Inverse folding.
């Protein structure tokens, strides 16, 4: 609330000096503002105390205004100060003003007359310093029978003058106007211009795949790798395994840098083929980094849902013997990539390890329904084993 607008009206309100509209506004504000009500009580108490006092009001003396007037007249008048401009600033302003006036006069009157004279001087200089241009002429024609006369006039038949006629030199005509001067200058610039007709590589055909660009990963960086099959993709489609990330993770674990070690171990998985993962997992387990590496893989899998991240997480959970976590990871992998028969096989193995026989049978049957002979044979073998182990045979 804007209390300051109403507090200055509290005294007139308490004295009853406000009109109807102002009084109603003050009363409405007082009904909503406790601080202003308290201020009004203070004003009323002071007013009541002043009314109840028996002290008569003091009246000013009759000669008060005369004494005040005498003091005003006796006071000396203040000195009149004019605006003083420093001498240096005034001189600079004058010089600047004179320069501006002179420039304006030159630009409007003298400059238009100087331009034609400058152009004529440029044309005169070009005329005096015109370049000599050589023109090639056709070889002389001796079919008119004047070859002997030419040889006799030039000396011996074997002399250079007799064998090769002199080339005439033609002096180029100087331009007659500034426009012609600009044309000659443009021709010279074009002669000295750099070559621009270099061969250009042809543009790729429409629909062609762009060339692959690979950047070397730096320490602690784990980019999302392309999705792989669940264990049967050839190694030539993967990047070259980087054997430095696993030792780097062990060094970082020894130095207490657990977060960097987890990223390095995870990068070692991403930069290698699934056939090499058991060796990496042994080094991770030896360093005691199974849990933190699994957390790194799980964070990447939850953020991007990549197949590679899910398979790394499944491998680490398998080494930790966490069957329920394996089943959850396999279910999500299957939901994201239902066309991969190897993921259905892993789901069946995880459900079987977790004790969910019916889910394992369904996953094995789904894996066996694909055209992959290897995955289908393994899934049928697992189905036969579960059927033989069942109580009913």
């Amino acid at each position: 609330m804007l209390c300051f607008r109403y507090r200055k009206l509290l005294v007139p309100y308490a004295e009853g000096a406000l009109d109807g509209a102002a009084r109603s506004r003050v009363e409405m504000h007082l009904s909503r503002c406790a601080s202003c009500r308290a201020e009004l009580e203070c004003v009323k108490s002071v007013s009541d105390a002043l009314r109840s006092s028996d002290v008569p009001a003091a009246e000013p003396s009759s000669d008060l205004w005369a004494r005040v007037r005498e003091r005003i007249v006796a006071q000396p008048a203040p000195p009149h100060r004019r605006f003083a401009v420093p001498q240096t600033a005034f001189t600079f302003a004058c010089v600047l003003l004179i320069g501006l006036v002179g420039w304006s006069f030159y630009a409007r009157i003298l400059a238009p007359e100087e331009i034609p004279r400058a152009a004529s001087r440029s044309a005169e200089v070009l005329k005096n310093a015109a370049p000599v241009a050589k023109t090639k002429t056709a070889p002389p024609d001796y079919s008119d029978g004047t070859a002997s006369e030419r040889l006799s006039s030039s000396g011996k038949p074997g002399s250079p003058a007799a064998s090769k006629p002199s080339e005439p030199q033609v002096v180029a005509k100087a331009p007659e106007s500034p426009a012609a001067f600009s044309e000659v200058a443009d021709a010279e610039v074009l002669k000295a211009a750099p070559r621009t007709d270099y061969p250009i590589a042809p543009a790729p055909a429409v629909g062609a795949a762009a060339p692959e660009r690979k950047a070397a990963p730096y320490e602690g960086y784990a980019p999302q790798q392309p999705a792989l099959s669940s264990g049967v993709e050839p190694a030539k489609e993967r990047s070259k395994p980087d054997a430095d990330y696993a030792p780097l993770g062990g060094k970082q674990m020894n130095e207490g840098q657990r977060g960097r070690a987890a990223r390095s171990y995870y990068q070692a998985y991403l930069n290698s083929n699934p056939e090499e993962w058991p060796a990496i997992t042994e080094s991770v387990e030896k360093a005691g980094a199974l849990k933190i590496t699994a957390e790194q893989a799980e964070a990447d899998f939850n953020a991007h849902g990549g197949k590679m991240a899910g398979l790394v997480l499944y491998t680490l959970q398998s080494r930790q013997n966490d069957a329920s976590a394996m089943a959850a990871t396999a279910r999500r992998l299957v939901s994201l990539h239902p066309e991969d028969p190897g993921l259905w096989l892993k789901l069946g193995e995880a459900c079987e390890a977790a004790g969910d026989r019916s889910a394992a049978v369904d996953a094995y049957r789904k894996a066996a329904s694909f055209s992959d002979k290897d995955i289908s044979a393994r899934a049928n073998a697992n189905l036969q084993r579960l059927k033989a182990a069942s109580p009913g045979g």
